[in-house]
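> call design_seq(struct)
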């Protein structure tokens, strides 16, 4: 529909204006129906047979037209890698952007403690072996999504002298976390914030 006011001249420049075709309502309806079917298929796939998760995903999608389970999972994968890497390197700026204040404060305190002890972390994010929804709800206008995230990393903590105090160089370690993200569905800010973390070990 946004192209309906655009027109073009013929190549032979005979000054006849040919308007580009506009989309008729039937096409728009068909597109909406296709998008709805795609959304329903995604909800079925990502809810892993759990009706309460499917209901939560559907409720959030209804409140936020930009939300789809697949795009959320893709975004969460990127956020997870950014956050664990930023935490290891002490990148407070990135963390502040992605974390709720309470979570940021706890991460920041741990970073400050590490720095005060003269410790540094050599960190490599290897990849995710699994990521799935464990709880999903729409609480008034707030969308709250909890994920189980299984990742593989190499993490070595060294003291001020460079000696290893935690981890084994070159060893890939499996870690399991439960992270909760939240977003006000009526907010103009499209970003989700990490509001809680829990180690599953």
């Amino acid at each position: 529909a946004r192209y309906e006011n655009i027109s073009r001249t013929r190549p032979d420049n005979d000054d006849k204006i040919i308007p580009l075709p506009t989309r008729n309502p039937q096409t728009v309806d068909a597109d909406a129906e296709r998008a709805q079917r795609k959304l329903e298929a995604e909800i079925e796939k990502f809810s892993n047979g759990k009706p309460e998760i499917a209901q939560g995903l559907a409720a959030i999608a209804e409140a936020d037209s930009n939300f789809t389970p697949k795009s959320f999972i893709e975004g969460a994968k990127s956020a997870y890698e950014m956050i664990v890497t930023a935490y290891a390197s002490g990148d407070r700026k990135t963390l502040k952007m992605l974390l709720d204040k309470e979570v940021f404060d706890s991460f920041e305190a741990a970073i400050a403690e590490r720095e005060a002890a003269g410790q540094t972390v050599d960190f490599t994010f290897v990849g995710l072996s699994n990521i799935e929804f464990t709880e999903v709800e729409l609480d008034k206008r707030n969308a709250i999504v909890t994920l189980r995230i299984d990742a593989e990393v190499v993490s070595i903590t060294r003291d001020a002298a460079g000696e290893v105090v935690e981890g084994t160089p070159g060893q890939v370690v499996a870690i399991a976390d439960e992270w909760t993200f939240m977003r006000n569905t009526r907010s103009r800010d499209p970003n989700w914030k990490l509001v809680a973390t829990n180690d599953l070990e």
